[in-house]
Amino acid sequence: MGSTSDVGRRDLIKRSAALGLISVPAMSALSACASGGDDDAKKVDKGKKSAKNPLAVNESAALDVVIFDGGFGQQYAKDAEAEYAAAFPKTKGKVKHAATQKIQTVLQPRFNGGTPPDLVDNSGAEQMDMGTLVGKNQLTDLTPLLDAPSLDDPNKTVRETLRPGVVEMGQFDGKPVWILYYAYTVYGVWYSKSNLAKLDMEYPETWDDMLKVCEAAKKKGIAGWTYPGKYPYYLPFSLYPFIAKIGGRDVLDSIDNLEPNAWKHPAVKAAFEAYYELYKKGYILKGTPGLTHIESQTAWNQGKALFIPNGSWVENEAKKTTPKDFQMAVAAPSSLDKSDKLPFGTLWASGGEPFIVPKSAKNPQGGMELLRIMLGEKSTKNFIKQVSSLSSLNGGTEGLSLPPGLASAQEALTKAGKNVVNPRLQDWYVTLQKQQIGVGALGEMMAGRMTPAETIKKCQKFADETAKDDAVKKYKHV
């Protein structure tokens, strides 16, 4: 996604950015991933541990990197790889870089054959299922990286330099950390300040005002909303924090935990009915159910719709079609009414662009060291400037002139304070989130082919089936 988001998430989401949904197996082949014998026998020898080489990287070993080529592109990774080669001159010419939008198609055979890369940016619509990878013991625990001295301040560990919640996102069972989310994505309702100003409107902080803004836009021939109808798992980017705002964090936690009747909570019903009202009143851009993420973003850039649910990668992903005077911004979901459990400003923000070091990687120390370099101030600032996204490094924006969307995302994050939610469905259960709840339920509802009540019943059915499926490893908030 992120690009997730990023949905998925990117896909994440994600975002955790999703660049197309295809029907692919949920990595069931990994269950047969015997890796062909002793993994340690295939690994390169470790190097000598020192202050400059805290992870004991083999200073002459090759490094194999695969990056998702989505909304963030791949140049930021190439630049970090150049820093790696400069730190270990004997690796010059030995750092292999590949980029693809089809992560699962390209890498599943390599995982099954026991020859995965040393570092993978596992993002996009073909993201490998993280829960499955963890459940099948396919990943390296990144704790040594997190406990290593940070690149810029040896008195701080890498762990101590990360934004709140990033480490926890990479945990599934207990203390091991299997995933490092490199980007930090702010999800929400994205809009153009200049387009709202043309209607003499500001961002609506209540749902009643949202409907008024949409009605005013409709009279001018402008739609209130659009979204990637072909990939409707973007809808939760604003819908999930809306649910949390109405009913509290526990509602999302119970959904993540696959609890019986979690989707039948009154907050879910209220949120679904509010979104369905956008369809019923004709506030959705005509043709939206058939649009890709790029097509919906382009229509939004062209002023055909005011609002779009998205993640903070959108500024970079849509820059070719964004007018100079667009004044891109993001806001938290509007308040439903005075009974909401959380205040206006509550939003979803979390790590995006998940990086993993496969357990069978030949050079896992090298993969972790490249991540350590990426989390240094130099690489972080380079990433921020290139792709208009925050990174998981807590800071890194000092001295930078931020573009409008990213500046707005940072303001929204500051305004949210402690009221930041982080639903885990998109990284715990990728198929459930994207293909079933996203495409099979929410997409149908917003296209008018399913009522909110039918959608809730469908979502609960999908969740119950996942909960009962012994082949799917389960995770819970603790």
Automatic annotation (TrEMBL):
Source species, domain of life: Bacteria
Cell compartments where the protein resides: Cell envelope
Major location category of this protein: other
GO cellular component, one term: cell envelope
InterPro entries assigned to the protein according to its UniProt record, in alphabetical order: Bact_solute-bd_prot1 (IPR050490), Chitin_NgcE (IPR022386), SBP (IPR006059), TAT_signal (IPR006311)
Keywords assigned by UniProt, alphabetized: Signal, Transport
One Pfam family matching this protein: SBP_bac_8
Family: Belongs to the bacterial solute-binding protein 1 family.
Record's protein name: N-acetylglucosamine transport system substrate-binding protein
Species classification: Bacteria, Bacillati, Actinomycetota, Actinomycetes, Kitasatosporales
